[in-house]
Amino acid sequence: MRLIIRDDSDGASDYVANYIINRINTFHPSAENPFVLGLPTGSSPLGVYKVLVQKYKAGLVSFENVITFNMDEYVGIPRDHAESYHTFMWKHFFSHVNIHPSNVHILNGNAPNLEAECVAYEDAIKKAGGIDLFLAGIGEDGHIAFNEPGSSLASRTRVKTLAYDTILANSRFFDHDISKVPRMALTVGVQTVLEAREVVVIILGQRKSLALQKCIEEGVNHMWTLSSLQLHPHPMIVVDEDATAELKVKTVKYFKSIEKVAQEAGFEQILPSKVRTGNGPIPQTTVDEVSSPTIHAPQPTTSRLLRATPATEYPIRSVSPDLVPDRMASRIPEPHLTDRLTPNPEQQAVQNAITA
Amino acid sequence: MPIALSPPFRPRNGLTKFTNCRLVRGNKLVQEDLWVSSLSGKIVNSQAAFFDDLVLPDQTIDLGGRIVSPGMIDVQLNGAFGFNFSTLLDDMSQYGKKVKEVQKLLVQTGVTSYNPTITSQRPELYQKALPFLGPSGHLQEAEDGAESLGAHCEGPFLSPTKNGVHNVDVLIEAQTFEDLEACYGKHNLTPRAEGEQIPIKYITAAPERGQMMKLIPELKKKGIIYSVGHSESTYEEASEAVGLGATMITHLFNAMRPLHHRNPGIFGVLGIAESLPRPYFGIIADGIHLHPTTIKIAFNAHPDGFILVTDAMHLVGLPDGAYPWTNGDTTCNIVKVGSKLLLENSDTIAGSSITLLECVNNFLQWTGTGIPHALQAVTATPAAMLGLQGVKGSLDAGADADLVIFSEAQTPGQPSTLVLDEVWKFGTRVHRATPPKSE
Ligand SMILES: [Zn+2]
């Protein structure tokens, strides 16, 4: 897990946008080997889209051979409704860049058969060769896409009933009239996101800080669906300072120091070559029947989830130093800590030599 | 295997996208893209085009922050570039040719549609000329230039005491609808076949003359707009006409009784907000017909009805000088000095020779109401008066893609004025003020 911390939301958005552009450009996407990008809606990614559009207009990136898949869409509001995610994407991104409409995929919340729509969506992702980079945002309760607390971490694209809190929160976009807020949405599942070759999450603002804390400092938990990212081989979370409010100082320092070390060593962005340039193995997509509203008995999905990440995709050399708890303090540039807490073989060897 | 993507060479679809521009939307300038189609001739709902038709524009034009306005509409134009619509030619087939020449030049002034206006004439002229002046946009030919939205018959059912430059000898009264037919020609008022368009869009008449008041509902039923003008109407008479269906006032203040504090006259109907819909009204902002303050008062009385018109004579577009003018049987000279037209050896205003954009810029200078309001007075408002809201004078999806692209000229301490850069008709560029350097 990489956690990148920037002073403010602009800095974080800038970082994410430049990261995506860098990934697209080093990928050298072509018609035969397109770059497949997963995209979110919401307030957090707005700044990212803004920078992407600016850089496109400045000629620094092209979306000619980029395929996109959006995370979610409401059920039952017109596609061109001011609050639909189609409209959001059109307004903030697609209308400003050179992406071709036939490369754009957004779930159709007005499909005659919603379940079939979800199955077809998973198929389309598979046909596109899987998602190279899934950009995501989160809700205050740590939900990723519409995978609200309690969603199965093995979930796939499906129809989802919205939590009352979400409906309440969304009513501000629908004239503060709860009756106008859609009750259902189509959303990719947690597993759909985890199958992307890389996941980048942008989290901004203090309101999201508890969710960030739960997802980073605590264990994998379906009540904070973003925490499932801990099982992904190449996740990256980009946040502003405000979002770190609930994190331990130690955690913040730790991740900042890793970024610094990595930057100095010049391997800020090291992904296995297959992830970098595409043509990677198509992730095995087993589309479980969408009718999985209740899991009556513990299914072996959890173990499958843990296996779901193909070992072949691990970095050939490690991306960042592994988190070994007893070595952690040594990465924090405070000399007295290094002296006191860390077993220091060299020093011991010197001491041994003296006593000997 | 990744799916095969669309080939880089896509079939042409006639779509143009304007970006980095400010659109005139209602009374605001909105930073937004605009998509137009030269195939349908319409403004395109870009989001639907993208998600439904899976198309991208053939060309994207970066306007560098300039203003995109709907094409301007002049609802009262008597002629231009040397041709007077109230002209009887020996060979009337030449008349149609002349009209087409005018339209091609007129579009270059930013006027993308207009109502060719015939001043008071003898029946023969109406019957021969009107068939050439009917709505001409059904073919959506951008190369045809400005489009007629139907003729405006200003007269001859006018008050002889408010004739202006109209020839008193040809002014008549109507007692019945047959009298109108006898003058304009039956088929210029009633279509020969159902669904066919008639050439007349609106008439200006004095409601107090003959039985004209009673004929208003019948005209309305036929889809002909009734405008009050060249009239001695009192406030009461004008109100009655509005109650019966008059929806327009021709060149407000000119050729009518002035506003009197005990009888506000025709102007008074702009004050009726309670029971009747207030009519639209034409204003000539040439600095000669009306004082700037008068224009301001009229605008503030009823901004949604305010329409700038030129009432321009055929001398618009020609150099200064004395030009012979045949008005009915008499011929005299009109002297053109700038946009000013006077009857030779008199102080009588003989119409104007101002362009519509000059009117807009005058209005901007005099009132400081802002560019969107000024442009509304030559786009959305005249379109609404003609019953063409959403079709003309609008940048909403589905409207005809008639556009003018303006730059702003800034003078320190003064409201900025508009400079015409490009004119588009039915989604195709038809005029550029300065050709691009590369061409
Ligand atoms: Zn007149």
Q: How is this structure best described in words?
A:
Chain B: Residues 67-408 form the Amidohydrolase-related domain. The complex is a heterodimer of chains A (356) and B (439). Chain A has 356 residues and is an alpha/beta fold. Chain A has helices at 9-27, 46-57, 85-92, 114-127, 164-170, 190-194, 209-217, 249-265, 273-277, 301-307, 325-328, 335-341, 345-355, and strands at 2-6, 35-39, 66-70, 72-74, 104-105, 133-136, 158-161, 184-187, 199-203, 235-240. Chain A is 35% helix and 12% strand. Chain A is globular. Chain B has a domain at 70-367: TIM Barrel, CATH 3.20.20.140. The A-B interface holds A 31-34, 36, 64-65, 67, 79-80, 86-87, 90, 94-96, 98, 100-104, 106, 127-129 and B 1-8, 19, 33, 45-48, 50-51, 53-56. The complex binds zinc ion. Zinc ion is lined by residues 154, 164, 230, 251, 255 of chain B.
User: Bound small molecules, which ones?
Assistant: zinc ion
| Rg calc of chain A | 21 Å
The name of the CATH superfamily of the domain at 70-367 in chain B reads Metal-dependent hydrolases
The number of domains of chain A is: 1
How many beta strands in the DSSP annotation of chain B? 25
Family (chain B): Belongs to the metallo-dependent hydrolases superfamily. NagA family.
EC number (chain B): 3.5.1.25
Pfam family, one (chain B): Amidohydro_1
Domain Amidohydrolase-related (chain B): 67-408
